[in-house]
Amino acid sequence: MVAWSQLATSAFTPSRMALLSCSVAGVATLWVGARALSSGRRSRELGIAQAAQGSRGERAAVDGVFFRRILRILKIIVPRWFCAESGYLGLVAAALIARTYCDVWMISNGTAIEASIIGRNMDLFKRNLFSFITAMPMIAIVNTSLKFGLNELKLRFRSRLTKSLYTQYLQGFTYYQMSNLDNRIANADQLLTQDVQKFCESIAELYSNVIKPFLDIVIYFHKLTGSIGMQGPLIMLGYLAMSGTLLTRLRRPVARMTVGEQRLEGEFRFVNSRLITNSEEIAFYQGNRRESITVHKVFDNLVEHLRSFIQFRFSMGFLDSVIAKYVATVVGYLVVSRPFLDVTDTRHQHSSHSDIMKDYYKSGRMLVKMAEAIGRLVLAGREMTKLAGFTARVTQLMEVLDDLNRGAYQRTMISNGSADDTPPLVPGSGEIIERDHIIRFENVPLVTPNGDVLVRDMTFEVQAGMNLLVCGPNGCGKSSLFRVVGELWPLFGGRVTKPNKGNLFYIPQRPYMTIGTLRDQIIYPDSLEDMQRRGVTDQQLVGYLEQVQLTNLLDRDGHWDAIQDWMDVLSGGEKQRVAMARLFYHRPQFAILDECTSAVSVDVEGFMYNHCREVGITLFTVSHRKTLWRYHEYVLQFDGRGAYEFRQIDNTTEEFGS
To answer: Is the preceding peptide bond at 525 cis, omega within 30 degrees of 0?
Structure first.
């Protein structure tokens, strides 16, 4: 045992231990870096979910593009020179300046306290200690003011940016077009919530992490210049420029990895919400095993990306710690020691040992603080690179919103709709004319947003009072026709004459129930204030419920202000009748009924159709019920192969359906 102890003592000397530690750290860094690169390569080869599709042409790095993007967002979150956000930015800056001066004062006061202890001067010790005690409340106020200002900035930035984005997102049909017409953004909910939150937190933290070290460097540079000369602080600033440039170049993949992480997080969130939304259908199909494969595949892609990110951060963390912290401290010691170790320096030739100790201790602390500030400023580049990723995501959303709000969208086209010498179909090339009491199609092609031509040329006219029955096989263009009428889809040519959107009403097979009261379900999308401006009373709403035989809802829930989860509380038939009551409330010129009475009895259905005729609502009906033919004057029949027939219903018309 003695021999082994002696061998260990001789083998593991401090110098050899240091060499061994450096070797192990270097090998680990290289190994992790190689693993990160190979993992990233595998991720690209596998095509992580749909990440590659949305990132074509997307750029995330700390460069001129990044600063232009930041400037664009800053105009939203800080809209004016004199606003609440500017005030809180000033509060944070003032708190940071005050905190730096507090640090300088605490260094001087701490040096004085220690000098009085070493000099055994009780009066001086008490006086300096009392100064420290009296300053504590002020220092605490400075620190808490800084935290308060940062938290308020994060909240106000998020509030400004979120409201601005939602104003554009909910303008017109942009929210529909983003998910159905434009395929540049896969998960808008992820961008509008988590990405915006992380961006606002990151930019507020970066403001603090850049301003504080910068102020520290300026103040300590000024103080140190007077004590040890200008050469030492300039050397530290030169090291800051060199190390910052090097680490910024090495950190470039962080922005791209941040973009990929947020996209994959959004995809994982999407498959989970999709599972919840369609849980009943999946349960009927017993599709839990298939959905499990999908969820685990998306999650595994996310985990693989996060693991490669962690491995990259490990290797960069080693370099950050060495370059920004430890080497910066070494440079600081070399700089502060120069005037003390140089025997030719006349500064301390006549100073006592106590004076030299006090001067070195004060200057050394300031220089170490300056070195730490330089390290923090260098490390702030890491946060800036990460911010570049969030900035790229948010500005991509803003650009897509701008495009959609001016009528432009981008989508992968399966077919351009042209064959032989037929000219290509261009989205938005058609003309819409607003005119009351008529819907007319003139040479309108029925084309899906990705270019599939369902009908090459449609021409027909429906005037007020001419109920139209639309029929045909699945996928023939019935719903597409209504999306064109409702202006959800762009026109690829021709001319459509129709009333404005306020005089068209659509009722699907599964009506939407909003969050709110029973009254809100009847008057949707109006609010209570809108209803009162229209001069409609609750008693009139009771009449609408009577017409669809739903007064039992009012009896069951007790009052109009009852709040329930109406999507779950109401049965399928009740939801369809609520939608018809909603139609009677709005009384549009035209209504599109898409299998909206499939869960309603024939007698109730007949009453509702007759009442629509009485109040002057012209109907476009999609239904397979044979009993509904009697309530219509015209039929539009698709054959599913690109042809259609529009004709009047008379005694010779063959009725079909169930």
So the answer is: yes
- Would the pLDDT of 343 be above 80? no
Give me the pLDDT at residue 162, please.
Answer: 93
- Helix or strand (DSSP H, E) at 634: strand 634-638
CA distances from 513 to 322, 479, 525, 575, 600 (A): 59, 21, 10, 8, 17
Q: 620 has which bridge partners?
A: 468, 592
Nearest to 114 by CA among 356, 364, 361: 361
pTM of this structure: 0.72
Distance CA 141, CA 290 (A): 57
Over residues 518-575, the pLDDT tens digits come to 999 999 989 899 999 999 999 999 999 998 888 888 888 778 988 888 888 888 888 8
Distance between CA atoms of residues 627 and 254, nearest Å:
64
Side chain identity, residue 461: E
221-229, long-range: CB < 8 A, 24+ apart: 221/370, 223/104, 223/366, 224/363, 224/366, 224/367, 224/370, 227/359, 227/362, 227/363, 227/366, 228/335, 228/336, 228/338, 228/339, 228/363, 228/367, 229/339
Name the nearest CA neighbour of 340 among 330, 351, 327.
351
SS (H, E, C) 49-80: CCHHHHCCCCCCCCCHHHHHHHHHHHHHHCCC
Q: Which of 317 and 154 is assigned the larger pLDDT?
A: 154
Do 445 and 479 contact (CB within 8 A), yes or no? no
**46 — pLDDT class (breaks 50, 70, 90):** very low
Strand bridging mode 453-463 / 590-594: unpaired
Reading the block at residue 634, the tokens are 């015209």
- The sign of the CA dihedral 219, 224, 226, 232 is negative
Task: Provide the edge-to-edge strand list for the sheet that holds 468-471.
Answer: 504-507, 590-594, 618-622, 468-471, 634-638, 644-648
- Listed residue (369, 368, 343, 372) closest to 356, CA to CA: 343
Using the 8-state DSSP alphabet, how is residue 120 labeled? T
The alpha carbon dihedral of 165, 166, 169, 171 has a sign of negative
How many Cβ atoms from other residues are within 10 Å of residue 450's Cβ?
Answer: 14
Residues 283, 269: Cα–Cα separation, whole Å: 20
Only one residue has tokens 């609750």, namely: 538
Distance from C-alpha of 602 to C-alpha of 21, rounded to nearest angstrom: 84
Query: Which DSSP category does 629 fall into?
Result: G
Integer Cα distance of 595 and 449 in angstroms: 23
Biggest alpha carbon–alpha carbon distance for the chain = 123
Q: How far is CA 520 from the centre of its chain?
A: 29
Burial environment of residue 146 by CB neighbours within 10 A (0 to 12, 13 to 18, 19 or more): buried
